[in-house]
Structures are given as C-alpha cells and as structure tokens.
Design goal:
The structure is a single chain. The protein is of the alpha/beta class and 965 residues long. It folds into 4 domains: 3-87 and 112-187, no CATH class; 223-428, P-loop containing nucleotide triphosphate hydrolases (Rossmann fold, 3-Layer(aba) Sandwich), CATH 3.40.50.300; 434-607, no CATH class; 706-900, Alpha-Beta Horseshoe (Leucine-rich repeat, LRR (right-handed beta-alpha superhelix)). It is globular and about 90 Å long. 47% of the residues are buried. It binds adenosine-5'-diphosphate (ADP). The site of adenosine-5'-diphosphate (ADP) has 21 residues, from helix 17 and helix 26.
C-alpha cells in the first residue's frame, strides 16, 4: 500500500499515539525531525504549531499537510513517527527505507542557522537542561533581551519546549545568535541534570541511599495491588493514562495534562506553596497514578529533578501510634539508610528542592487536616499526622515538593489554602477504556468481544470511565459476555458480578447443595461485611488478626480473595485490607442489608445529609450507625474523619442498589422478606426526604425571573442512589415535587456515570427545565447518557465539557425531535467543522429554536458556511455566539449574508480574521473591532467590504452585530 494512503487510513491510530498522553512532546519531536529533514518549511511549522490551539488540532494539521505534500513526505513522516514512538501499535509501514533517509539528510549543513534546523532534535535534547546558561550567553552577547528570556522560560513550557522556543527565537535573531548557541553547546561539558546545573555532586552515602530507595520503590510499585492474592499484573503491562485536568482555569494550558505536569510548574496558582493535590473519586486511579510516578522515578524515566522520593500511604500512617521525628518518619516508613543516617538527613534538610514527598489517600487519614499545631523543628517528635500537616503547609521542610491524593469531598478550604495547584483525575477517556481492556486481555479476540459488549450497553460503558469499575468489568468478562444484553446497569450490578465471580472462581467448593451462590457463601459475606462495616465506622482500612477474629473471619473467608495482605508498619505484624476501598463499602452495604445485628436507625443515619466538617467538629455519623456495644474507640480529641461522609455515601448508594426490586430474588433465602421489605421502605423514605430537603432550600424567584435550583452538595449523590434502585415509582415520586425552571449543576463533578443517573431521574419531571451542566466532565459518552431526558429539557448548557463532534451528532439527532428543546450552549468544547452540518439541519428543521452558542471551539470558514446554510432557512433564532473560532473573512461574510434578513436575531458575536462590514437589517450593523478577542470594546470600527487582513490574521478580531445609534 502507498504510504500516502496509510496516512489517511491510520489517521485515528496516529492521532491517538501522538496525543493520547496529553503531552505535546511526541508531536513536537516528530515536527523537530521533519524540520531537520527539510520536509517542513518554517512556515509549515508555524502553521501547525499554533500555541493555544488544542493538541489534536495541531496533530491533524500536520497529517493534512504531510498528506498533501505527497508520497515522499508521508514516508518520512512514518520514519520520524517510528523513531519517536517505536512501540506504537497499528501505525506505520513495513518499508524500512524511510529511516535510512532520515540519517542521510542529517549530514548536510552549512550556516549556523541551518545547523539549528538540521540538528534540531539533538539540540533540543542538549539544551533542555541548561536553558539558563544558553540564555545568559545570548543576553551577554546582546542578542536577547530580558523579554526574550521571559518568553522562552514561560513556566507552562516543559524544559524541551523551552529549548524549542529558544531555538525559534534564535532563528529570528540571525546567524550570529545561532553561532552563540552552538558555541555554548560545544563548550558545555557536563551532561544535563539539575544536579549538575547547580554543580552538585551528592556525597557517596547519599547516592548509595538513593540507590537503595529507588530499588525498594521499584519493587513496591511494579505490580498492581488489586491483582493481589492469586495473580499479579505488572504495572507496565496494564497502566493506562487517565484524564488529568487543572481544577482552576488556566489560559495557558490547553488540553489534558501529562503525568510530569502534576509535579511541574504548569497551572500553579499559589507560588508560595509546594503542595499539589491530585483529587478524584474512589477508584478513579489516584493510587495507581502515584504508583506509576514512583516507578518512573525509580527507573530514572521521570521526575529526575528530584534526587530522593519518599512515598507515603496515609492508610499505613494511620497505624503508626508512636510519636516520630521527621527523620524517623522518612527512614522508618520509606527506606532505612545502612550508614551515616545523620549525614543523609542533613543533606535532605539542606537540599529541599531535590526532594519529593507523595502522600496517597489523605482522605483515609483518621484525622482531618488542621493547621493548629505548628512544628518547625525537624528533630522534634510529634504524632505522624502533625508531621504530615506541617509538611503540607511548609512549616516543616519548606521547599520540598509534595503530591497529595484525596477524594474531592474530603478536603476543605483550610487545606486548599496551602496548595500550589489542584489537579483533577477524571478516570479513563473513551480511548482509555479501549486501551485498558486491550491491555487486560492478552487474547485480542476476548478484548474485542468485551469492548463490543460494552458498546451495546452504554450505561455500563459509562461506568467504565471509573478505572476500578473498568477493572471489575474486564476481570469478570466471562460473566459479562454470558449475561443478556443490557442487564448490567448500575454500580451495584457490577459489584455483585465481581462477588459472584470471586465466589465461583476462588472457591473449591462444588455447589452440590442446590443453594444459590449467595446462600452458599452467606457466612463469608456476613463475616467480611461486619469487618468492613466496623472498619468504615472507625476509619480503619487495615485489619489485624484480632479484628478478623472478632468479626469471625476465617481462613476460608480470606481465601475468597476480597482481602489482601498488608503490613502493619508499626507492629510489623501481618494485616489485611480489602482489594479496594469501594469493595469495603460494598461489603459494609451487604452487611447492612443482610445482617440481623444492625440497629433500626442504621439506614436513616446512613442517608443523613451531612456536611464535611473540618477539624474540631465531630460528625460521627457513621459510627452512630453501629449498635452502641460495637462502637469502636475513636481517636481522642473528637477529631473528625474526612473520609466519613464519602464512605458513608458510597455505602448508602450500594444499599439502595442492593435493595432494588431486581435483586430481591437473590436475598429470598438469605433474609426474612418482612425485614427486607422494611429496609426497602426505610431507604425509599430516606431518599424522598433527602430530596424534599433539597427542594425546600430553593429560594422563591425574583419577580419576572425563572425559578432556579443550584444543586447543593449531596444532591447528585441522592440522584445516584435513586438510579441504583432502578424503580420508576421512586424516581417519579422524587421528581414530582421538584418545581423549577432551571436546574444548575455546574462544577459538580458530573461525568458519564452521573449523567446516566441524572437522565434516569429527570425524565420523570413534569415540566420542561433548563439543564445547566457547565464545567463538568460530561464528554461524548455522558452526552449519550443524557439523551433519555432530552424531551424534558428546554435548554442544555454544556460549556467546557470535553465534547466532540461525535457527541453533538448523537445529541442533535435526538433533540431535533424534541419539541421543547430550544437552546444550547457549547462554549469551550472540542467542536470542529464536522459538527456544523448537524446544527445547520437543526436550524432548518426546528423553527422554534432560539439560542445557539458555539464560542471558543475550532470552527473555521467551512463550518461557518455550513451554519449559514441553516441560518438562511431559520426564522426563530435570537442568539448566535461564535466568538473564539476562526471563521475568517469568507465565513463571516457567509454568515452576514445569511442573517441579512433575519427578523429575530437580537445580538450575535463571533470572531474571525477579517475586516469587513456587512449591512444587515436597517437597524443593525456588523462591526469588526480589529482588536484581539479578549478586548471586546467596539473601538476602531472599520467600514469596508473587504480589505487586506495582514495584522488581523495575527490577532483574531471580534465581530459583533449591534443596533445602529
Ligand atoms: P483510587 O486510589 O483513586 O481509589 P486506585 O488507583 O486504587 O484508585 O484504582 C483502583 C483500581 O483501578 C486499580 O487497582 C486498578 O485495577 C485500576 N486502575 C486505576 N487506575 C489505573 C490506570 N491508570 N491504569 C490501569 N488500571 C488502573
């Protein structure tokens, strides 16, 4: 096959390989090689590498260009691609001639400026660790100003990107500047490393310690823990990138973050702080992500700016009863130096910027964050949580970088005050799910079947965005493939599947009793259930032999595989923990549903809506669920546990699911039906009451305005519980009392899983509502999940939600048939010209549609022209928002012409690259400001049909329609 055709055929695979990590590095390396080969001109490069544009768009531009350039360029592109990503699957050609062409071309060079181009890939490598030195030489020689230096060293750039920006600047400064850089590189003797930058050679003992530390970390992190028990899965084989985003909007960051960006300067909001928070739901992959970072560091493949990395698990720290000094904490909990402990500790104190601490699962710590007890002395002993809190604040060891993971609900403003940034881990993307399943099943045939069955069950596919659920689904593929289409819908279904899977696969017992699988293993469920239930009440995740004994857990129960072994650090005794925290919550829920030992008030207390409180105020909600005799010892001082509410909520969600009508047959012979019925009634009552409480909090609307409800914390959780029950009457009852015109769920962590639940519940609303889901992680899969409630939506706000053309295609195919649907806002998503045909169709067909906002997407002239086609036939649209796109002169003109006779439009904004003014209605004019889009004042209005747009191409300008004075 011709390579040019391959570029087309393998487009998806190539784009995935170049962009799926979220980092621009692979693409930029390919560009470096193509530039050095002379396959791309400087102008080509600038057209592709548009800063601020989404990574995928830049990559698409490159593919378009190499395709246009023909067979030879495509061949070289594949050679460059293979050099950058040698292991990429499903991409490339079998022809090997391409790579030799790469080598030959690199030989030729004459002027220094040319050398900068032809040697670009190796120069980037050489410069990346010594940008400061090169800039210094350029400033001293008078070629660079301090403004040039600032541009190069923008903190959002990685070291490699800084090197490239430096080369780009030097190129514009001419031959003598290029010479200075080449000379600088020639004189540079030392290999690149931050250690060498500061001319530091750590003492031999420190280097020895580093070796010991890294080999211990490598050993600890090379296998994934959920595979414990019978089998191990190597992290390398299974690790799949999750979606990382900054919690705060950051104008300079486009698209997802890479792993190393977590620790890097990207998105810093508080320069004084050294702590980064990685937040994500339980099972979202936080621990695995840290494990990956640890492994990469230990192998020397990432984070090499740090000489020493100290990993801590808050779960393990819980069992440390002693007061420790910082030195004891580091050496006893991470790695013991064989000799010269004092010297090594002194080195750590003296070089905080070379040290990285990670704290996994802050939400699992028994004590909530507090900054009351200040500690600055590194030799003073203190309880470990006090040491930890002081490290996070920076009172102890200021300058050490810290990465902390936690569930979002478990950290309050007091803690956030000490963060330099917060990164959100949002589970797997659709391609991540695909990738994970393929990695999980070495048999490609099985992987394809699992994926196929996921695609036919979108509710399940939605759940798989959570890595832990993706793991369960993959693990239980036989059950999955065996069950009828669509039968697995809720999180409870998925956990019941794994329960059955473990019992049937890990038990040697043959079922000759005629009992159903649950009946057969009821005692195991109750023993483990009690352990889990008591543990959650006491914020205990690691259990001693005595704990197991107290709950009646036997050797046989342990063998089922739900528990894995772990070491109790302080006593060095063997301990046990559940495979995952969510598994512990599931067993706690089973206990609540099946046991006859729980209190009558257990369920009502479980469903109480409580706010998380910070230190000092005890919530003690879960503990109160326990019969008083079972209440475990709480830490003194009445401290609260940040984990209490989230754990209680997860458990309550499972309780709702387990008490669903669909599962009652399972309990039939395990629990008296009268007891079961009573528990069901209790849950239904709690859900109804919980919703009432939310509805009562809705303020009366100001006269003339719509009645709007902003979701309070806990609302989404209640919705999820109702979904788990899968009983229409419960959903109907809950929604019948909601009387609002507008439901606002912005910044509520809404992903595909939540969308499924929302759609299920909202479809029971009596009157149409506006649904505002801005700033969540809905994505295309979430959009698909929302379809069942579109008939009851009159407007849908999905700003900033990672939606692409595919999601829009499905959404519009549905909403075009929905009578009430009149407004949509999609500002800041990933839309391109491929979606405008669908909008055009919507505009033509729906003559009651009033508002279309598509600002800040990737629409161009082509898309604008397609929209114009629809606009010509539409007689209802009042608002059109298109700013922040690149619709260009011709696009703007097409729109203006289409709108010429519009009698309904009230105000429009879009950005283009043109200077034109088109007459509209007699009372309206179209203005082009000639100013960057950020500056929206209509100064500088230029009246002309068309003109040269040389500076306008540099600064996309805003066009707006205004009423004539
Ligand atoms: P959290 O710490 O957020 O609760 P974990 O990291 O423990 O979540 O993830 C739960 C399980 O999900 C892991 O044990 C693993 O099986 C799977 N998992 C999570 N993240 C990944 C990943 N990036 N790649 C592969 N599997 C993952």
């Amino acid at each position: 096959m011709f390579v040019q055709e391959l570029v087309l055929r393998q487009r998806t695979e190539i784009l995935n390989a170049l962009c799926s990590s979220g980092s621009a590095e692979h693409l930029e390396q390919v560009l470096d090689i193509l530039l050095s080969q002379g396959e791309l001109t400087w102008e080509d490069y600038q057209n592709i590498q548009v800063s601020g544009r989404a990574l995928h768009c830049n990559a698409r531009k490159l593919l378009d260009l190499v395709y246009i350039k023909g067979e030879d360029t495509c061949g070289l592109f594949f050679a460059a691609f293979k050099r950058v990503l040698p292991d990429a699957k499903g991409v490339g050609t079998s022809s090997s001639g391409c790579s030799s062409t790469l080598e030959e071309k690199e030989e030729h060079q004459s002027t220094c400026t040319e050398t900068l181009l032809t040697q670009r890939p190796s120069l980037v490598e050489k410069l990346r660790g010594c940008i400061d030195g090169a800039l210094e030489d350029l400033v001293t020689s008078g070629h660079f100003t301090s403004a040039d230096c600032c541009e190069v060293q923008l903190p959002i750039h990685t070291p490699c990107q800084q090197a490239r920006r430096l080369l780009d600047h030097v190129r514009s400064k001419g031959e003598s500047a290029a010479k200075v850089v080449l000379q600088f590189i020639q004189h540079k003797q030392e290999p690149v490393s931050p250690l060498s930058q500061e001319k530091l050679t750590p003492p031999k003992e420190v280097l020895k310690y580093q070796k010991k530390l890294s080999s211990s970390i490598s050993a600890q992190s090379c296998f994934l823990s959920t595979y414990g028990g019978t089998s191990h899965m190597s992290l390398d084989d299974i690790y799949t990138d999750g979606q990382l985003e900054l919690a705060h909007n950051c104008v300079d960051v486009n698209g997802p973050l890479g792993l190393e960006d977590i620790v890097g300067a990207v998105g810093t909001v508080n320069k004084e702080a050294d702590t980064v928070l990685v937040s994500g739901e339980a099972g979202g992959g936080k621990s695995t992500l840290l494990q990956r970072l640890h492994l990469l560091w230990a192998r020397g493949a990432a984070l090499q700016d740090f000489l020493l990395l100290f990993p801590f698990s808050c779960r393990r720290l819980n069992s440390e009863q002693r007061e420790l000094s910082l030195q004891e904490l580091l050496f006893q909990h991470c790695c013991w130096p064989d000799r010269q402990q004092e010297e090594i500790f002194q080195f750590i104190l003296d070089h905080p910027h070379l040290i990285l601490f990670t704290f996994d699962g802050l939400d699992e710590l028994k004590q909530s964050f507090s900054d009351e007890h200040r500690l600055c002395c590194p030799t003073q002993r203190a309880p470990v949580h006090i040491l930890l809190f002081n490290l996070i604040q920076g009172s102890l060891m200021k300058g050490v970088r810290k990465v902390v993971t936690s569930r979002p609900e478990a950290v309050g403003p007091l803690f956030k005050k000490h963060l330099c940034k917060e990164v959100l881990l949002k589970g797997f993307s659709p391609s991540g799910i695909d990738c994970f399943v393929r990695k999980h099943h070495s048999d490609a045939h099985v992987a394809a079947k699992v994926l196929e069955s996921l695609r036919t069950n979108t509710a399940l596919l939605g759940l798989c965005h959570s890595p832990v659920l993706c793991w369960i689904v993959s693990q239980c593929h036989k059950e999955l493939l065996g069950c009828g289409e669509g039968s697995l819908q809720t999180i409870t279904d998925v956990y019941l599947m794994i329960l059955q899977h473990f019992f049937q696969h890990q038990s040697s017992l043959k079922n000759t009793t005629g009992l159903c699988w649950l009946q057969q293993h009821l005692q195991t469920v109750l023993h483990l259930g009690k352990l889990a239930f008591d543990g959650i009440g006491a914020t205990c995740y690691i259990f001693s032999g005595t704990d197991l004994e107290t709950c009646g857990v036997t050797e046989k129960d342990i063998c089922m595989g739900f528990l894995m072994q772990s070491k109790d650090i302080s006593t060095h005794a063997e301990g046990y923990e559940f495979l995952h925290l969510t598994m512990q919550c599931f067993f706690a829920a089973l206990y609540i549903v099946l046991s006859d030992n729980t209190d009558r008030s257990t369920i009502p207390k479980l469903f109480e809506t409580q706010k998380i409180k910070e230190a000092g105020q005890s919530s003690r909600c879960f503990i109160a669920c326990l019969p008083s005799t079972d209440q475990p010892q709480r830490p003194s001082g009445g401290e609260t546990t940040a984990a209490e509410t989230p754990n209680r909520q997860i458990t309550a969600t499972f309780v709702s699911g387990l008490l669903s009508q669909r599962h009652r047959n399972l309990w039939l012979h395990c629990c008296p039906s009268a007891v079961m019925e009573k528990r069901v009634r209790q849950v239904v009552k709690c859900l109804s009451k919980g919703m009432q409480k939310h509805f009562k909090s809705i303020p009366q609307p100001v006269e003339g305005e719509k009645k709007s409800m902003h979701a309070m914390p806990g609302f989404v959780w209640l919705i999820k519980c109702i979904y788990e029950m899968q009983e229409d009457r419960v959903a109907k009852d809950a929604m019948s009392k909601l009387e609002v015109d507008h439901l606002k769920l912005t910044y509520c962590n809404i992903g595909p899983v939540e969308c499924t639940a929302l759609a299920y519940v909202l479809q029971h609303l009596r009157n149409p509502v506006g649904l505002q889901l801005d700033n969540n992680s809905v994505g295309d899969v979430g959009v698909e999940q929302l379809l069942p409630c579109m008939h009851i939506c009159n407007s849908l706000y999905l700003r900033n939600n990672n939606i692409t053309d595919e999601g829009i295609r499905k959404l519009l195919a549905k909403t075009i048939q929905c009578e009430h649907f009149k407004k949509i806002a999609l500002f800041n998503n990933n839309l391109t010209d491929a979606c405008t045909q669908h909008f055009s169709r919507l505009l033509k067909i729906k003559q009651n549609f009033v508002s279309l906002r598509l600002g800040n997407n990737n629409l161009t002239e082509k898309g604008a022209k397609q929209l114009a086609e629809g606009l010509k036939c539409n007689h209802s649209l009042e608002y059109l928002g298109l700013w922040g796109n690149k619709i260009g002169d011709a696009g703007a003109e097409a729109l203006a012409t289409a709108l010429e006779n519009s009698k309904t439009l009230l105000g429009r904004q879009w950005s283009g690259e043109c200077r034109s003014m088109c007459p509209l209605q007699h009372h309206q004019e179209l203005y082009v400001t000639g100013r960057p889009v950020v500056d929206r004042e209509p100064h500088n209005q230029i009246r002309s049909g068309k003109s040269d747009s040389s500076d306008a191409t540099q600064h996309p300008c805003e066009i707006s329609v205004v009423e004539k004075q």
